[in-house]
Design brief:
Blueprint (H helix, E strand, L loop, with lengths): L3 E2 L10 E2 L4 E4 L7 H9 L2 E6 L24 E4 L8 H7 L9 H7 L1 H13 L4 E5 L5 H14 L3 H21 L10 H21 L2 H7 L4 H11 E2 L1
Parallel strand pairs: 3-6, 4-5, 4-6
Antiparallel strand pairs: 1-3, 2-7
Helix pairs in contact: 4-9, 5-6, 6-7
Pfam family, one: Y_phosphatase3
GO molecular function, one term: phosphoprotein phosphatase activity
InterPro entries: Prot-tyrosine_phosphatase-like, Tyr/Ser_Pase_IphP-type, Tyr_Pase_AS, Tyr_Pase_dom
């Protein structure tokens, strides 16, 4: 399900992203009881769902999970977009599937990203799992913001995004997606190169701290986020 701990990524000036504090994934309904037990053992206490209302819920092919494995989780629903928004539909229809449109998504809904970053900064003790459906672009957009705020180099952020792209492609090998199809290795390499270019361009033009503070993020949230998600 394309889940991983982002701990260990380098932070400019020394240090790294703290282990066990920030995780990313695709839709968690595919995770088994054993998977949830392991994730809880890794310290996850908060789950932030970036999907829209019509995307959430269990499918017949999903794992059946023991309730005990989910007890006590702090769950938040925080969609990054409004799929009915006219301009968004014109830009990103049928859905956000490339960093080419990250800047537009940030421009349209800054208040949504302020809320998400606030939620991460102020979550109960423990790790935070951020997820969408495929674990690639909406998750990638939020993770991009968080990692830039922490001082992770652009190339390392792009490397992390690439892992998500390649993992999502493997998922398309075995599922019948309504829009996307599995890419051959040659097609995938070309797509990765294109998406990395878009992501790196976005990062070069973005000052995440300035963007969020101007949109209403409290400075103390930024301080709390950095203290929470980095280690020496």
């Amino acid at each position: 399900m394309n889940v991983r701990d982002l701990g260990g990524l380098p932070v400019a000036g020394g240090g790294r992203v703290a282990h066990g504090q920030l995780f990313r994934s695709g839709r968690p309904e595919t995770m088994t009881t054993a998977g949830w037990v392991q994730l809880r053992a890794d310290g996850v206490s908060t789950v932030i769902d970036l999907r829209n209302d019509d995307e959430r819920g269990r499918r017949s092919s999903d794992a059946v999970v023991d309730d005990e494995a989910l007890d006590g989780l702090h769950r938040l629903v925080r969609p990054t977009e409004d799929p009915t928004h006219v301009e968004f539909k014109q830009l990103c229809w049928p859905y956000l599937n490339t960093p080419k449109y990250y800047a537009d998504n940030l421009r349209l809904w800054p208040e949504r990203f302020v809320r998400i970053v606030h939620d991460v900064a102020t979550a109960p003790p423990g790790g935070v799992l951020v997820h969408c459906s495929g674990g690639r672009d909406r998750t990638g957009l939020v993770v991009m913001l968080l990692l830039q705020l922490l001082g992770v180099p652009d190339e390392a952020i792009a490397d992390d995004y690439e892992v998500g792209v390649r993992a999502a492609n493997e998922r398309f090998r075995v599922i019948n997606h309504p829009v996307e199809r599995y890419r051959t290795p040659e097609q995938l390499d070309a797509w990765v190169a294109e998406t990395r270019t878009h992501l790196l361009r976005t990062l070069a033009e973005l000052d995440a701290a300035d963007y969020l503070l101007r949109a209403g993020l409290a400075p103390e949230d930024l301080d709390a986020l950095r203290a929470r998600l980095t280690e020496a």
